[in-house]
Design goal:
162 residues, mainly alpha, 3-stranded antiparallel β-sheet, two-stranded antiparallel sheet
Amino acid sequence: MPLFTDPARTDSLVFIRSGADEGELRRTLQSLACAKKKVLRKRPVGKDIDETYVFHFNSEFTDLGVKVHINSIQAKETPEESTRTQWHIDSDRKHYLDAAIVRIMKAKKELTYEQLKTQTIESVKSHFVPEVNLIKQRFAGLVEQEYLRRDEDDMNKYIYVA
């Protein structure tokens, strides 16, 4: 039996029959019943979704397009997810900076700090604009990993270690 043709069908039965994740299903039902294009009707009327609400197909729904585009409700990110996401972004940026610095130094062999910093920013600016402190940390990390070394006579100069 289709999920939305029975007028007495409740959200809890939809949860059971669909087998979908509860949060994802709530967002989907909200998109279908509460957004601009109401493919489903729900009782009681409102923006919230509860297991006791009743959904049924909106037979009066029409759309001029051949395809119907329905905007989905976005899930709210928890503070832990936000922190985790930011950590992954920072980690990816560090690797991207390391690769850019090594690429530059492999081509130039030796550069002063300012030249290397400027070329690094120029190299990655289409992806993100790095902070100078992060670039300094990456220089230090690459010196520690022995990809680069400082010149013994001029500590402001970096030399690529093959």
